[in-house]
Design goal:
The protein starts with a strand and ends with a strand. It is of the alpha/beta class. The chain is built from nine helices and ten strands. A ten-stranded mixed sheet has the order 3-2-1-4-5-6-7-8-9-10, sandwiched between helices.
Length: 279
């Protein structure tokens, strides 16, 4: 029996709500067989205060090689890659993989303000990996960093302009996520010709740890199932909104979305507006 398969190359989050853990849970909820290559472990050490533990490059390569050789993939997602060396090798492996569905989540800083990408790796991300992407999914701070902008994005118009500028880095599509805006939760998708504005009612909660990971994983899952990028984003928006609406609280810190909420409670309606962009 054939089943769609998706590979996540990302960090492992000990709290269980982000990174590889969020990706695999999302893949499962969306009916996709999930594979993983762990690039590092994000966890807080009580004595040394270290919170990122990188995995050796050979171990990352072995995981990717095994997934591609033994199982195969219909889509690949990247998350925390941490170093420019990792990015260069991941880009090479993606070029050699038998899939054109590549989702790059340019993970730079965690929800708990943990640096997840070294400063000297940002340019490598932009030049080596993003041009291979079907879609990139930056949040507002990540979009500003990729654009080398000292000015933060604060409005929907800022998201539109950022999406248009980020498209010049070479990905086929750009999705700028407006999770930090005030008012409705708006995301902007740009394909080089049209701006797609996706909007839902904002949910008043701080418990969104891993929401960005899960959102991009849901897009990856939909692409693996053969959906178009626009369909994938819209379905993923329904998924993550339901998950945030029923988010989970932990005994400490920011809790995660409930990845099972989409099937347990149903999705939500997403308003979509399309704007023709005149170059």
């Amino acid at each position: 029996m054939w089943v769609p398969r998706a590979l996540s190359i990302a960090g492992s989050a000990a709290r269980g709500g982000a990174g590889i853990q969020a990706d695999l849970k999302t893949f499962q909820e969306m009916g996709v067989f999930g594979l993983s290559s762990v690039t590092g472990i994000v966890a807080y050490h009580p004595y040394t205060n270290q919170n990122v533990f990188p995995i050796g490059l050979s171990a990352i390569e072995a995981q990717v090689y095994t997934a591609l050789r033994d199982v195969g993939v219909d889509a690949i997602k990247t998350g925390m890659l941490y170093t420019k060396e990792n990015i260069c090798h991941v880009a090479k492996w993606i070029e050699e993989a038998d899939t054109t569905n590549v989702v790059v989540d340019p993970v730079m800083v965690g929800k708990m303000d943990t640096p997840l990408l070294k400063d000297d790796a940002i340019n490598t991300l932009k030049t080596k990996l993003i041009p291979l992407a079907t879609i990139i999914t930056p949040n507002m701070p990540e979009a500003a960093l990729l654009l080398k902008s000292n000015q933060q994005l604060t409005t929907v118009d800022d998201l539109k302009l950022a999406a248009i500028e980020l498209k010049k880095l070479g990905s086929k599509y750009v999705l700028v996520k407006g999770g930090r805006l005030k008012g409705p939760a708006v995301d902007v998708l740009y394909d080089g010709e049209k701006l797609h504005i996706f909007e839902v009612q904002r949910i008043d909660t701080i418990h969104t740890n891993g929401a960005g990971c899960s959102y991009s994983a849901a897009i990856t899952a939909q692409l693996a199932k053969g959906k178009s990028v626009q369909e994938a984003v819209k379905e993923a928006k329904k998924f993550i909104t339901a998950a945030i609406r029923h988010s989970i609280t932990f005994k400490r810190g920011v809790g995660p979305p409930d990845f099972a909420a989409y099937h347990r409670h149903g999705g939500v309606g997403v308003k979509e507006k399309i704007i023709e962009f005149q170059k």
